[in-house]
Inverse folding.
């Protein structure tokens, strides 16, 4: 999965630099889409992040078009392993993430007693 995105200046941690938490949220979202893509976007498949590692390599500028990429690496039972990057226009990795997502059962609705 991939997309292009420009982060608004309002999401800066330091002037002109995307806040690290925003970078994590962007990558977590694209990694989730990579898992759903690998499982065929089946609405009965519910997955959650169970392990997330992030490496900030270079500052990520605000208000600049970024290339966001997520890749499904492998599945092992209920676990899905994914990785992704925030890249600049030249393809340089600015932030890298690796995660494990797990398929979970959908909770039963509360009883109407």
């Amino acid at each position: 999965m991939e997309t292009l995105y420009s982060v608004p200046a309002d999401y800066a941690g330091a002037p002109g630099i995307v806040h690290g938490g925003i970078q994590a949220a962007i990558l977590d979202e694209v990694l989730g889409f990579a898992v759903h893509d690998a499982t065929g976007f089946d609405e009965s498949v519910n997955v959650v992040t169970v392990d997330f590692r992030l490496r900030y390599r270079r500052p990520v500028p605000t208000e600049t078009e970024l290339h966001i990429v997520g890749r499904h690496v492998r599945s092992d039972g209920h676990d899905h392993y994914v990785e992704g990057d925030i890249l600049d226009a030249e393809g340089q990795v600015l932030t890298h993430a690796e995660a494990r997502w797990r398929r979970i059962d959908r909770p039963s609705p509360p009883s109407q007693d």
